[in-house]
C-alpha cells in the first residue's frame, strides 16, 4: 500500500491494533464471507468510520439493502475514500481505501439502485458504527 497517508504505521503496529480479521481485510485486502458481517443488515441512524483510524467514511442515510451480502452505501463522505483499480480475480473493479490510512474498505460498483448509481460494497470488519 502507498505510504502517502496521514497515518503511517508498520505492519507490526497494525497487527497489534487490529483483530486478525480486521488486519486481513484492512491491510491485506481480504474479504469477509457474504451475509456474515455485523453491519450487513444494520440500519440505525449514525455514522460509519474506518475501523483502523476512525475516519468518517459513510453516513447511515446512504446505506441501503442491496442483497449482495455486504453493507452497501450509495455515497461516501467527500474526500474520505481513495479509489484504486483492482485487476485481481480475473476482473477489473474499483477498490475503495480509507484516504487517511490506506485501509482496504471494499469495492465500489456502478450498479446501485439509487440516483447515485453507486454501490459501495463494504466489509463490516473494516468499519465501526457510531450513533
Essential attributes:
131 residues; alpha+beta; Metal Binding Protein, Guanine Nucleotide Exchange Factor, Chain A; six-stranded antiparallel beta sheet; 2 helices; 29% strand; peptide-methionine (R)-S-oxide reductase; Mss4-like_sf; zinc; Met_Sox_Rdtase_MsrB; oxidoreductase
Structure description:
The protein has a single domain, classed as Metal Binding Protein, Guanine Nucleotide Exchange Factor, Chain A (Beta Complex). It has 2 helices and 9 strands; from the N terminus they run H-H-E-E-E-E-E-E-E-E-E. With 131 residues, it is of the alpha+beta class. A hairpin with a 6-residue loop joins strand 5 and strand 6. The protein has helices spanning 11-17, 20-28; strands spanning 47-50, 56-59, 63-64, 72-73, 81-86, 93-98, 104-109, 119-122, 127-130. It is globular. The N and C termini lie far apart (31 Å). Strands 3-4-8-7-6-5 form a 6-stranded antiparallel β-sheet. The longest helix is centred in the first third of the chain and has 9 residues, at 20-28.
Uncertain residue ranges = none
Distance between the ends: 31 Å
Instruction: Give the second-level CATH assignment, the architecture.
Output: Beta Complex
Helix amount: 10-25%
The strands making up the biggest β-sheet line up spatially as: 3-4-8-7-6-5
Number of helices: 2
State the shape.
Answer: globular
Category by helix and strand content: alpha+beta
Number of strands: 9
Q: Tell me what portion of residues adopts beta-strand conformation.
A: 25-35%
CATH superfamily: Peptide methionine sulfoxide reductase
Q: Mind describing the biggest β-sheet?
A: 6 strands, antiparallel
Order of helices and strands: HHEEEEEEEEE
CATH topology-level fold name: Metal Binding Protein, Guanine Nucleotide Exchange Factor, Chain A
Keywords: Metal-binding, Oxidoreductase, Zinc
Enzyme class: oxidoreductase
Cofactor: Zn(2+)
GO biological process, one term: protein repair
